[in-house]
Amino acid sequence: MARISIKGDEVRFVRKDSTTVDAIFFDGNVLEDLEPRRLFPVSGGNKYITLLDKDNKEQAVIRDVDALIPESREIILACLSEYYMIPRILKVLDRTEKFGILKWTVETERGTAEFTIQNRHNDIKIFYDGRVLVRDSNDNRYEIPDYRTLDRHSLKLLGYDL
Which long-range contacts (CB under 8 A, 24 or more apart) does 53-60 make? Predict the structure, then answer.
């Protein structure tokens, strides 16, 4: 089956649960139990969203979520928001290292979290605008929107002692 490319308003999405939708095309075709995922999670924004079936196989691609009808756009954005829920780190409370594995204790907008990082070079990405993405050993993601706005103690623990 060829990939279906969704360019705009030829489909209506119905939400099944927090991360699953049905696609009802206006030509009568229906694709059920699809999970929207970003093809480019860091840089893609609302463009190029893949729709995966239960077997994790791509069934269709939404080129631009903003081109969908308003109700469908809101459904897809809600599913993406639920799936890509990335807690924001507000403070770094503690950081230790043992055998090359980093253990962080942080405060997020959702409360205190503790996690380990296996490889600091692959799992901590610092962007030009000061944003930092962190991936822990369980593949959970965290974000520091701008490390330069962190308190002095957090900066010291991150190695940015000023």
Answer: 58/3, 59/1, 59/3, 59/4, 59/23, 59/31, 59/34, 60/3, 60/4, 60/5, 60/6, 60/23, 60/31, 60/34
Pick from 83, 114, 135: which residue ends a domain?
83
Q: Are residues 56 and 122 in the same domain?
A: no
Among 65, 83, 101, residue at a domain's last position: 83
Q: Tens digit of pLDDT per residue, the chain (162 long)?
A: 567 899 888 999 999 988 899 999 999 999 999 999 998 876 767 899 999 999 999 999 999 999 999 999 999 999 998 888 889 999 999 999 999 899 999 999 989 999 999 988 889 988 888 889 999 998 888 999 899 999 999 999 988 753
Q: Mark whether 24 and 45 lie in a shared domain.
A: yes
Range of the domain at 44: 4-83
What is the pTM (predicted TM-score) of this model?
A: 0.63
Residues 74 and 93 reside in one and the same domain: no
